From TrEMBL:
ATP binds at residues 8-16. Its main location: cytoplasm. Belongs to the cytidylate kinase family. Type 1 subfamily. Belongs to the TRAFAC class TrmE-Era-EngA-EngB-Septin-like GTPase superfamily. EngA (Der) GTPase family. GTPase that plays an essential role in the late steps of ribosome biogenesis. This is Multifunctional fusion protein. Keywords: ATP-binding, Cytoplasm, GTP-binding, Kinase, Nucleotide-binding, Repeat, Ribosome biogenesis, Transferase. It is found in: Cytoplasm. The chain holds residues 1 to 232 of 711 of the full protein. GO terms for molecular function: kinase activity. It comes from Bifidobacterium bifidum ATCC 29521 = JCM 1255 = DSM 20456.
Amino acid sequence: MIRVAIDGPAGVGKSSTSKALARHFGFAYLDTGAMYRACAWWCLHQGIDLDGDQVDEQQITEAVAEFFTGDHFDIGVDPDHPSITADGEDISEAIRSSEVSSHVSKVSNVIPVRHVLIAAQRAYIARESAADSFSLGRGIVAEGRDITTVVAPDAEVRVLLTAREEVRQARRTGQAVAGAGVGGEDVAARDRADSKVTSFLTAADGVTTVDNSDMDFQQTMDVLITLVADAV
Ligand code: C5P
């Protein structure tokens, strides 16, 4: 069983590389950002106000607890068909909307919400390591902001995937040179909001930093594949 933990800021290409890495090794794939996005989507869907500086943390916590314990939420960990559902409805695309992106930090910064999600994420990771349960392979790639430090600090492979801010902004907006927020979201603003509760801008002890500012997708993959292959 190999657990691969990948953290990093917005726009660095974590999801596409983590998914491809899981596919390469036949591992399961856990997108923890999608879980936080699903919670934000659920709160918005419930009519909870996420605008303004002060949100109702108790209301958010109760809604997220119901989302999980009431069995409304489900996630698929097959990297070929990653899915997120709410009451059976596929919300994989809805959680990528700019409305969710701009509100997700309000939900992920609520500490009791993090406790619910961290416990669920640890359970998914443990499930993939149980020999007698559903498993796509001998391991899992889990990506997010606090996987290397909080969710799975004992993972066999721990990587901080990062890139210079202007490169990440350009990737997000799809432009060669982009000003913050032009034609897309302001990744720096979301990183600032997220940094209040998670530490993903510098690598923790024992975590390998991979700066892919000057790498293309395949070069990034080659580095990650080598790191995992060395641990297998
Ligand atoms: O990775 P992605 O950009 O989809 O993450 C969406 C949001 O989920 C982040 O901006 C952050 O607020 C939250 N998140 C988190 N902890 C994680 C993964 C994501 O707080 N492990």
